[in-house]
Write a structure and sequence with these properties.
Blueprint lengths: L3 E3 L4 H9 L6 E2 L14 H20 L4 E11 L2 E2 L6 H11 L3 E12 L2 E13 L4 H10 L19 E5 L2 H5 L3 H10 L4
Length: 189
């Protein structure tokens, strides 16, 4: 059987795959430009990036394989929140999300001998109104750095969620149900 390659360096995605009994044969992070295009919606960005990552890793691997890629994007309306790289970005994201509904889009793409399959999973969340102490405490934890929208729902930010409608694992970084279906449909195990 062709190898299973995860086109992501995210330890959260590795953990989510393990939860459904899957272990990649190789992990190869893609190196693509993740800058949103002018006018691009959060859903469009998640789909474009997941496809580009899968295609880039599949073409660099050079042999038949199951190449799985994903990208998670947090959006408020048409606004795309950044993958927070600083405490200031985490603060700005949390202040924007405080007391508001938002959506998390995770694009999943699979390159296989059967071609490219892809999907975007949308999850809607409502955050409680965050106090200054909530935000300061979360920033001090360091959990928001490197996370889309400046938070990780699997950690302390889980206490901010009043309501979630959709896939919890998708918000973490990989919709496990849809991923398992894609792999099965492509002939993986």
């Amino acid at each position: 059987m062709a190898p299973f390659i995860l086109a992501s360096a995210s330890p959260r995605r590795v953990d989510l795959l393990a939860q459904i009994g899957l272990k990649p044969d190789r992990i190869i992070a893609s190196d693509i430009d993740e800058t949103p295009l002018k006018g691009e919606t959060p859903r469009e960005l998640a789909l474009r990036l997941s496809r580009a990552k899968a295609e880039a890793v599949a073409s660099s691997f050079g042999a038949p394989a199951f190449v799985l890629a994903a990208d998670t994007v947090v959006g408020v309306g048409r606004r795309i929140l950044p993958k927070a790289e600083s405490e200031a970005e985490v603060r700005a994201c949390l202040e924007l999300l405080s007391g508001r509904n938002h959506r998390v889009f995770t694009g999943v793409a699979l390159m296989s001998a059967k071609g490219l399959s892809h999907k975007v999973v949308e999850t809607r969340l409502l955050f409680k109104r965050l106090s200054a102490a909530d935000i300061d405490g979360y920033i001090a934890s360091g959990e928001g750095i490197g996370k889309a929208g400046g938070y990780g729902i699997q950690g302390r930010a889980g206490a901010f969620v009043i309501h979630i409608n959709g896939s919890f694992p998708s918000v973490v970084g990989l919709p496990t149900y849809e991923t398992a279906l894609m792999l099965s449909g492509a002939g993986y195990r």
